[in-house]
Amino acid sequence: MQTWEEMKELQPLAGQMLVNSFTKDRISHAYLFHGNRGTGKREMSLLFAKSIFCKFRDGVDPCQKCRDCIRVDSGNHPDLHWIEPDGQSIKKEQILHLQKEFTYTGMESNRKVYIIVDADRMTVNASNRLLKFLEEPSKQTTAMLLTESGQTILNTIRSRCQLLSFQPLSAKRLENKLVEEGVSQSNARLLSALTNNLQEALDMNQDEWFANVRKIVIQLIEVLQNKPNEGLLFINHQWMPHFKERKQLQRGLDVLVLWFQDVINKFLDREDSIVFITEREKLERATMKWSRQSAAQCLSRILEAKRKINQNVHPNLVMEQLTLQLQR
């Protein structure tokens, strides 16, 4: 994220609150960023740190080119300190080391910033040590605590932080952001229908295994439409070898759900809601195989198959039964 306007498109409320901190010269000594993974917490903490250190700001926006901005990006700014879990947790010794660092004068300014990633993973001793640190705030010190689970942070720590809630990204906003990141429109539409997590969507887009999921789902649909007698053969020789783990199988069924939702959207003329935008002709042909009512029944059967997978029913049996149901 280069500007606060871009950040406010991603997280309008949290972004505006931090902009107001600058414009009103009321930067808090501690913030708690809480929200799901991929909602922009780390990106906003970086932008906020740049705005604090940049000497060439345009309003509240950092220049992104000066020595301070570049070093914040690289993680090498001497007055910005990152704390992340050491193994499974953030330990007391890490907080003690941070406190020691903050007894020194800033290397290049009077400001000091520290960012604690996965703050909910602090040990009890680390949390208590941080609490003592927060109880004696310096006007020149700014803390940002990042967490997916704000409720697990000690209430005494929460009460000393300004709370910023990061909301799940809307499907359309995520789709647009993915396109900006270089993801194709068709993949962006599919990914934004499967997750509201930006980083997860980007990771899936780079995953060779996931790249074949769309293709295999479409192949299954074509088999069911044109060669229904070969459905079970396809499941055992093409589908199951690709979806070897239960988690993978759930993902394949998620994409299959989206296909039948698209069939229903075709009947309802909801073209803007179509996910498989590059397969419109196939969707048109699908409406000749499945009526709106039968497509809705197929959705129910797929969701039931997902429940059975979660209940540890044998995956092959689940998929074979589902295939026979979808053929009718």
Q: Counting H and I runs of at least 4 residues, what is the number of helices?
A: 16
Biggest beta sheet attributes: 5 strands, parallel
The CATH H-level superfamily of the largest domain is: P-loop containing nucleotide triphosphate hydrolases
> Total number of β-strand segments?
5
N→C terminal distance: 50 Å
Calculate Rg over CA atoms: 25 Å
Order of helices and strands: HHEHHEHEHEHEHHHHHHHHH
- Give the CATH class of the largest domain: Alpha Beta
Question: What does this entry look like structurally?
Answer:
With 328 residues, the protein is α/β, with parallel strands linked by helices. The chain is built from 16 helices and five strands. The protein has helices at residues 4-10, 12-23, 41-53, 67-74, 92-101, 124-134, 155-158, 171-180, 185-194, 198-206, 208-226, 231-242, 246-267, 280-289, 292-310, 315-327; strands at 30-35, 80-83, 112-116, 141-147, 162-166. It has a five-stranded parallel sheet with strand order 2-3-4-1-5, with helices on both faces. The model has no long low-confidence stretch (mean pLDDT 91). This is DNA polymerase III subunit delta. It comes from Halobacillus yeomjeoni. Keywords: Nucleotidyltransferase, Transferase.
